[in-house]
Amino acid sequence: MDRRLLAAHELEDTSVVANNTMNRERGLSGVNSYTREPGFDPLAHLRSAAPTPAWLDLCSGSGHALREAAAHLPPGASLTGVDLVGPLRGAPLPPSLELLTASVSDWRASRTYDLITCVHGLHFLADPLGLLTRAATWLTPNGGLLAAHFDPASVRFEDGAPAARPVLASLRAAGFTYTHRHHRLTLHGPATVRLPFRSLGADAEGGPNYTGQPAVAAYYARA
Fold it and tell me: What's the pLDDT at 169?
Protein backbone atom coordinates (compact mmCIF):
# COMPACT_ATOMS: atom_id res chain seq x y z
CA MET A 1 0.00 0.00 0.00
CA ASP A 2 1.62 3.27 -1.12
CA ARG A 3 -0.74 5.70 0.64
CA ARG A 4 0.00 7.16 4.07
CA LEU A 5 -2.76 6.49 6.55
CA LEU A 6 -3.56 9.20 9.05
CA ALA A 7 -4.29 8.78 12.74
CA ALA A 8 -7.40 10.47 14.15
CA HIS A 9 -5.62 13.64 15.31
CA GLU A 10 -3.91 14.01 11.93
CA LEU A 11 -7.11 13.41 10.01
CA GLU A 12 -8.91 16.11 11.99
CA ASP A 13 -6.47 18.71 10.68
CA THR A 14 -7.29 17.96 7.04
CA SER A 15 -9.70 20.13 5.06
CA VAL A 16 -12.16 17.29 4.44
CA VAL A 17 -12.77 16.90 8.18
CA ALA A 18 -11.99 20.24 9.83
CA ASN A 19 -14.10 22.17 7.34
CA ASN A 20 -16.98 19.71 7.20
CA THR A 21 -20.34 21.48 7.17
CA MET A 22 -22.57 18.39 6.92
CA ASN A 23 -24.62 19.08 10.06
CA ARG A 24 -24.08 22.80 10.58
CA GLU A 25 -27.65 23.82 9.70
CA ARG A 26 -29.64 20.57 10.07
CA GLY A 27 -32.70 21.07 12.26
CA LEU A 28 -35.10 18.79 14.05
CA SER A 29 -37.81 18.60 11.38
CA GLY A 30 -38.31 19.34 7.70
CA VAL A 31 -36.51 18.25 4.53
CA ASN A 32 -32.95 18.55 5.88
CA SER A 33 -33.60 17.29 9.38
CA TYR A 34 -33.03 14.77 12.13
CA THR A 35 -36.52 13.42 11.56
CA ARG A 36 -35.83 12.67 7.91
CA GLU A 37 -32.22 11.45 8.03
CA PRO A 38 -32.36 8.83 10.82
CA GLY A 39 -35.78 7.66 9.56
CA PHE A 40 -37.73 8.21 12.79
CA ASP A 41 -38.92 11.05 15.01
CA PRO A 42 -36.32 11.64 17.77
CA LEU A 43 -38.83 13.54 19.90
CA ALA A 44 -41.36 10.71 19.77
CA HIS A 45 -38.69 8.21 20.80
CA LEU A 46 -37.45 10.39 23.65
CA ARG A 47 -40.95 11.08 24.98
CA SER A 48 -41.67 7.36 25.09
CA ALA A 49 -38.32 6.44 26.63
CA ALA A 50 -38.39 8.09 30.06
CA PRO A 51 -39.95 10.97 32.03
CA THR A 52 -36.61 12.80 31.78
CA PRO A 53 -35.02 11.46 28.58
CA ALA A 54 -31.41 11.87 27.48
CA TRP A 55 -30.15 12.38 23.91
CA LEU A 56 -26.52 12.32 22.77
CA ASP A 57 -25.80 13.63 19.28
CA LEU A 58 -22.31 12.83 18.00
CA CYS A 59 -20.92 15.12 15.28
CA SER A 60 -23.74 17.50 16.16
CA GLY A 61 -22.60 20.52 14.15
CA SER A 62 -24.13 23.71 15.54
CA GLY A 63 -26.61 21.73 17.63
CA HIS A 64 -29.70 23.21 15.97
CA ALA A 65 -31.72 20.01 16.35
CA LEU A 66 -30.85 19.73 20.03
CA ARG A 67 -31.80 23.35 20.66
CA GLU A 68 -35.18 22.75 19.04
CA ALA A 69 -35.73 19.51 20.94
CA ALA A 70 -34.98 21.17 24.29
CA ALA A 71 -38.03 23.39 23.87
CA HIS A 72 -40.32 20.36 23.56
CA LEU A 73 -38.92 18.11 26.31
CA PRO A 74 -39.33 18.23 30.12
CA PRO A 75 -36.95 20.50 32.06
CA GLY A 76 -35.17 17.46 33.47
CA ALA A 77 -34.20 16.16 30.03
CA SER A 78 -30.50 15.94 29.18
CA LEU A 79 -29.30 16.86 25.68
CA THR A 80 -25.63 16.62 24.74
CA GLY A 81 -23.95 17.48 21.45
CA VAL A 82 -20.32 16.68 20.65
CA ASP A 83 -18.61 18.15 17.60
CA LEU A 84 -15.03 18.79 16.49
CA VAL A 85 -15.80 22.34 15.33
CA GLY A 86 -18.42 23.08 17.96
CA PRO A 87 -21.41 25.41 18.03
CA LEU A 88 -21.57 28.84 16.47
CA ARG A 89 -22.05 31.81 18.78
CA GLY A 90 -25.69 32.50 19.33
CA ALA A 91 -28.43 32.57 21.90
CA PRO A 92 -27.65 31.17 25.38
CA LEU A 93 -28.19 27.44 25.70
CA PRO A 94 -31.21 26.14 27.60
CA PRO A 95 -30.31 24.48 30.92
CA SER A 96 -30.98 21.00 29.56
CA LEU A 97 -28.50 21.37 26.65
CA GLU A 98 -24.72 21.00 26.62
CA LEU A 99 -22.70 21.49 23.41
CA LEU A 100 -19.14 20.23 23.67
CA THR A 101 -16.26 21.02 21.32
CA ALA A 102 -14.31 17.77 21.27
CA SER A 103 -13.17 14.95 19.04
CA VAL A 104 -15.61 12.04 19.04
CA SER A 105 -12.61 9.81 18.27
CA ASP A 106 -11.55 9.79 21.92
CA TRP A 107 -14.48 11.38 23.79
CA ARG A 108 -16.12 9.23 26.47
CA ALA A 109 -19.62 9.61 27.89
CA SER A 110 -20.01 9.87 31.65
CA ARG A 111 -23.66 8.74 31.62
CA THR A 112 -26.11 6.69 29.56
CA TYR A 113 -28.59 7.94 26.95
CA ASP A 114 -32.00 6.92 25.68
CA LEU A 115 -31.02 8.02 22.18
CA ILE A 116 -27.62 8.33 20.52
CA THR A 117 -27.41 9.66 16.97
CA CYS A 118 -24.57 10.20 14.53
CA VAL A 119 -26.02 11.72 11.37
CA HIS A 120 -23.47 11.42 8.53
CA GLY A 121 -20.65 11.76 11.06
CA LEU A 122 -18.98 8.36 10.71
CA HIS A 123 -17.94 9.31 7.16
CA PHE A 124 -15.21 11.55 8.58
CA LEU A 125 -13.66 9.32 11.25
CA ALA A 126 -10.44 7.35 11.16
CA ASP A 127 -12.08 4.57 13.19
CA PRO A 128 -15.88 4.58 12.82
CA LEU A 129 -16.11 1.02 14.17
CA GLY A 130 -14.38 2.11 17.35
CA LEU A 131 -16.94 4.83 17.97
CA LEU A 132 -19.81 2.43 17.36
CA THR A 133 -18.29 -0.03 19.82
CA ARG A 134 -17.99 2.61 22.55
CA ALA A 135 -21.38 4.22 21.91
CA ALA A 136 -23.13 0.85 22.24
CA THR A 137 -22.18 0.82 25.93
CA TRP A 138 -23.64 4.31 26.53
CA LEU A 139 -27.26 3.28 25.87
CA THR A 140 -29.82 3.01 28.62
CA PRO A 141 -31.38 -0.41 29.28
CA ASN A 142 -34.90 -1.11 28.05
CA GLY A 143 -35.19 1.12 25.03
CA GLY A 144 -31.85 2.84 24.46
CA LEU A 145 -31.40 3.36 20.69
CA LEU A 146 -28.28 4.08 18.65
CA ALA A 147 -28.80 5.31 15.08
CA ALA A 148 -25.98 6.27 12.70
CA HIS A 149 -25.30 6.57 9.00
CA PHE A 150 -22.63 4.18 7.78
CA ASP A 151 -21.08 3.68 4.36
CA PRO A 152 -19.74 0.12 4.02
CA ALA A 153 -17.75 1.17 0.94
CA SER A 154 -15.62 3.40 3.16
CA VAL A 155 -14.06 0.51 5.14
CA ARG A 156 -11.12 -1.28 3.58
CA PHE A 157 -8.37 -3.70 4.45
CA GLU A 158 -4.67 -2.82 4.51
CA ASP A 159 -4.16 -3.82 0.87
CA GLY A 160 -7.11 -1.65 -0.22
CA ALA A 161 -9.52 -4.55 -0.66
CA PRO A 162 -13.15 -3.84 0.33
CA ALA A 163 -14.00 -4.78 3.92
CA ALA A 164 -17.73 -4.09 3.60
CA ARG A 165 -19.03 -7.67 3.72
CA PRO A 166 -17.08 -8.94 6.75
CA VAL A 167 -17.62 -5.67 8.62
CA LEU A 168 -21.39 -5.71 8.06
CA ALA A 169 -21.53 -9.41 8.98
CA SER A 170 -19.74 -8.68 12.26
CA LEU A 171 -21.96 -5.69 13.04
CA ARG A 172 -25.09 -7.76 12.46
CA ALA A 173 -23.72 -10.57 14.63
CA ALA A 174 -23.22 -7.98 17.38
CA GLY A 175 -26.88 -6.93 17.19
CA PHE A 176 -26.85 -4.04 14.73
CA THR A 177 -29.42 -3.72 11.97
CA TYR A 178 -28.31 -2.18 8.67
CA THR A 179 -30.56 -0.88 5.90
CA HIS A 180 -28.73 -0.59 2.57
CA ARG A 181 -31.20 1.79 0.99
CA HIS A 182 -30.69 4.53 3.58
CA HIS A 183 -27.22 3.52 4.81
CA ARG A 184 -28.46 3.38 8.40
CA LEU A 185 -27.18 1.35 11.33
CA THR A 186 -29.36 0.92 14.42
CA LEU A 187 -28.80 -0.88 17.69
CA HIS A 188 -31.01 -1.38 20.72
CA GLY A 189 -28.80 -1.59 23.75
CA PRO A 190 -26.84 -1.39 25.81
CA ALA A 191 -24.47 -3.89 24.28
CA THR A 192 -20.88 -4.98 24.62
CA VAL A 193 -19.66 -5.07 21.04
CA ARG A 194 -16.43 -6.80 20.06
CA LEU A 195 -15.50 -6.57 16.41
CA PRO A 196 -12.61 -8.56 14.91
CA PHE A 197 -10.94 -5.53 13.32
CA ARG A 198 -8.07 -3.26 14.31
CA SER A 199 -7.92 0.31 13.08
CA LEU A 200 -4.92 1.23 10.91
CA GLY A 201 -5.87 4.84 10.22
CA ALA A 202 -7.61 6.59 7.36
CA ASP A 203 -7.05 8.02 3.91
CA ALA A 204 -8.26 11.62 3.78
CA GLU A 205 -8.62 11.35 0.00
CA GLY A 206 -11.24 8.65 0.01
CA GLY A 207 -13.29 10.68 -2.46
CA PRO A 208 -17.03 11.43 -2.50
CA ASN A 209 -19.25 8.82 -0.87
CA TYR A 210 -22.94 8.08 -1.46
CA THR A 211 -23.91 11.54 -0.17
CA GLY A 212 -21.84 13.20 -2.89
CA GLN A 213 -19.68 14.85 -0.21
CA PRO A 214 -15.92 14.28 0.22
CA ALA A 215 -15.32 11.58 2.82
CA VAL A 216 -12.49 9.47 4.21
CA ALA A 217 -11.67 5.80 3.83
CA ALA A 218 -11.05 3.89 7.07
CA TYR A 219 -8.55 1.04 6.95
CA TYR A 220 -8.58 -2.04 9.16
CA ALA A 221 -6.65 -5.22 9.80
CA ARG A 222 -8.30 -8.40 10.98
CA ALA A 223 -7.75 -8.67 14.72
Answer: 98
Residue 217 CA to residue 204 CA, distance in Å, equals 7
Number of CB atoms found within 10 A of residue 62's CB: 22
- What total of structural domains would you count in the chain? 1
Residue 206, pLDDT score: 86
DSSP state of 188: E
Exposure b/e, 90-115, CB count within 10 A at least 16 = b: eeebbebbebeeeebbeeebeebbbb
Look at residue 86 in the predicted model and tell me its pLDDT. 73
207 assigned to some structural domain: yes
Q: What is residue 218's predicted lDDT score, i.e. its pLDDT?
A: 97
32 lies in which domain range?
A: 8-222
Domain harbouring 163, CATH code: 3.40.50
* pLDDT above 60: residue 22: no
Q: For residue 101, tell me if it sits in a domain.
A: yes
Question: What's the length of the chain?
Answer: 223
Among candidates 222, 145, 129, which has minimal Cα distance to 191? 145
Signed CA dihedral, 88, 92, 98, 101: sign only: positive
pLDDT, tens digit (0-9, with 9 covering 90-100), for 80-95? 999 988 776 667 889 9
